[in-house]
């Protein structure tokens, strides 16, 4: 059993239940309204939920360790690629980038399709090869750098959108990444992971997302 604080157990329960509720609500609203923003936000919450669920503190011996030692261990990276891609798809629909910046929207859409396709192929490959490290290299040396470039430019583009919805996204993303940098620096300096703070970041990001989503609607 991992040595985790009571706060982690409670926060994990809040995060998973919140993600499940957001997923169900968004899918139900999408089925009624057919608005793509609800579909993408629902899928983002679903894949983030699966990622968080693989870190459950309640069934470490039954779920966490067997998954880590199974051919499906790369799902840890695959799920992160998918939920980040779905979050970008949500931003595209939410900010009407197709209307305001059609060229960048088309480029971003192709980039996300390529990322999801590559991640799916690599995940299948790691299953058949008993966790070949190729997915780890792809995630750290291709996905993160390339996604970071698009994040920076997308933030710049968001500020130019006439309806000012981009400001909500910029504030949320900047604050989230600020906390991520602090977490990374702490890990580099101490060599220890703060699992409770990592989980807090997921909770914080989903709450921020929901706030500016409501403002936009």
DSSP helix fraction: over 70%
Q: Describe the largest sheet.
A: none
Please write the string of helix (H) and strand (E) elements. Answer: HHHHHHHHH
Instruction: Please state the average pLDDT score.
Output: 79
Shape: globular
Number of strands: 0
Q: What is the oligomer described by this structure?
A: single chain
Unreliable stretches: none
What report would you give on this structure?
By secondary structure, the protein is mostly helical. It contains nine helices and no strands. The termini are far apart. The mean pLDDT is 79.
Brief summary of the model shown:
This protein is mainly α. It has helices spanning 6-33, 36-53, 60-68, 75-94, 97-100, 102-128, 134-158, 165-190, 195-216. It contains nine helices and no strands.
């Amino acid at each position: 059993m991992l040595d985790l604080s009571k706060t982690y157990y409670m926060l994990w329960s809040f995060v998973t239940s919140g993600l499940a509720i957001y997923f169900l609500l968004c899918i139900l609203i999408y089925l009624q309204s057919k608005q793509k923003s609800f579909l993408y936000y629902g899928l983002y919450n679903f894949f983030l939920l699966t990622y968080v669920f693989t870190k459950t503190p309640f069934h470490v011996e039954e779920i966490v360790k067997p998954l880590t030692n199974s051919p499906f261990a790369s799902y840890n990276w695959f799920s992160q690629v998918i939920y980040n891609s779905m979050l970008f798809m949500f931003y595209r629909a939410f900010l009407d980038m197709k209307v305001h910046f059609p060229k960048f929207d088309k480029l971003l859409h192709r980039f996300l399709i390529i990322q999801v396709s590559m991640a799916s192929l690599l995940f299948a490959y790691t299953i058949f090869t008993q966790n070949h490290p190729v997915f780890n290299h792809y995630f750290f040396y291709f996905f993160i750098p390339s996604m970071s470039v698009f994040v920076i430019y997308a933030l710049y583009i968001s500020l130019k959108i006439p309806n000012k919805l981009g400001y909500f996204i910029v504030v949320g993303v900047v604050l989230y990444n600020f906390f991520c940098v602090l977490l990374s620096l702490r890990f580099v300096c101490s060599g220890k992971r703060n699992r409770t703070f990592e989980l807090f970041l997921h909770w914080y990001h989903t709450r921020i997302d929901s706030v500016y989503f409501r403002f936009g609607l």
